[in-house]
Write a structure and sequence with these properties.
Layout: E1 2-3, H1 15-20, E2 24-27, H2 32-38, E3 47-50, H3 58-70, E4 74-80, H4 87-101, E5 105-109, H5 123-128, H6 131-134, E6 139-144, H7 154-170, E7 174-179, H8 185-197, E8 204-209, E9 212-213, H9 214-224, H10 227-234, E10 244-245, H11 248-257, E11 266-271, H12 276-291
Parallel strand pairs: 1-10, 2-3, 2-11, 3-4, 4-5, 5-6, 6-7, 7-8, 8-11
Antiparallel strand pairs: 9-10
Helix pairs in contact: 3-4, 8-11, 9-10
């Protein structure tokens, strides 16, 4: 049983094509069989982000990035600042992903640990280390929070984002904002509009969950601190809690609410909680269904 959107007329503007054109997705523990399958599903050069959970040796991330590159896709490793015990360790990681996987883009985050293992307390410290551009990284992704942050005020979030953007600009690094998981199209729309009103005009990638079981989504929503957004999403669906959910309805709502011509470059980023190949197959099917009207 799948929570799919009802049939809707195709809008005059090709909003689905615009949103899905530069889609990206994310992997935590992918294997070679998945990469082999993806070759027949996703366009070559699709960006596949590589998550960096606490305790994962960075050499494992290098290996995964290399597999992604060899499969014909664009690897975008996470750099979790608090995971690195020294500047030397971080420099070694960046040198390896550049040399072994030809990585050109990374996503910088603080990391899901309370205490830093070394000198990097947050994402901006990574940018200001100058190690990224020194090793040839040309684009950096930074986090965005349509739902806000459970431990930080909106004011602190806005100040931190502006600082990261300034730091990247000073180092001639391109920037993309990649949002945290969100289930509320209205919140996402308001957040993107607020960025543009603040004259933050860099590309924005909206984080959505790929097709996943409702129970699985509940677990990930709790981990990501977006429980209220998720609760609103499943309201009225109590008879389907043992089924699956796809992001179809959210994408339709976004397409109806976002004036893409006024909001600069906006794309979608899919957290593949239900599996990388499953998410890719869903994305391909969604685009086919839209094209077929």
């Amino acid at each position: 049983m799948t929570l799919e959107s009802s049939a809707r007329p195709k809008p005059a503007e090709n909003w689905a094509t615009s949103l899905m054109r530069d889609l990206s997705t994310e992997a935590t523990l992918p294997n070679q069989m998945e990469f082999d399958a993806l070759r027949d599903i996703l366009p070559s050069k699709t960006q596949i982000f590589v998550a960096a959970p606490p305790g994962r040796p960075y050499l494992r991330l290098v290996k995964t990035a290399n597999q992604i590159r060899k499969a014909g896709f664009e690897p975008v490793p996470h750099i979790a600042a608090r995971n690195y015990a020294s500047a030397e360790a971080l420099s070694d990681f960046i040198a390896r992903i550049r040399g072994e996987a030809d990585v050109r883009r990374v996503l910088v985050i603080a990391g899901d640990v309370d205490r830093a293992a070394g000198p990097f307390s947050g994402a901006n410290a990574i940018i200001e280390s100058d190690l990224l551009q020194r090793h040839g990284i040309r684009e950096v992704g930074v986090s965005g929070y349509p739902n806000g942050h459970p431990n930080l005020s909106d004011g602190i979030l806005a100040s931190a984002l502006r600082q990261k953007l300034r730091s990247a600009e000073e180092r001639n690094l391109k920037v993309k904002i990649v949002s945290q998981l969100c289930f509320d199209a209205d919140q996402i729309t308001a957040w993107v509009k607020s960025l543009r009103m603040l004259e933050i005009n860099v590309p924005v990638s909206i984080g959505l969950a790929g097709p996943t079981s409702i129970r699985g989504l509940a677990r990930f929503a709790l981990m990501c601190g977006v429980r209220s957004s998720f609760k609103a999403y499943v309201a009225g669906k109590t008879n389907q809690l043992f089924g699956d959910a796809s992001p179809d309805d959210i994408i339709h709502s976004l397409g109806e609410a976002l004036d893409l011509s006024m909001l600069g470059k906006v794309s979608l980023h899919f957290y593949a909680y239900g599996g990388l190949v499953r998410t890719a197959n869903w994305a391909k099917d969604f685009q086919t269904r839209f094209a077929d009207g």
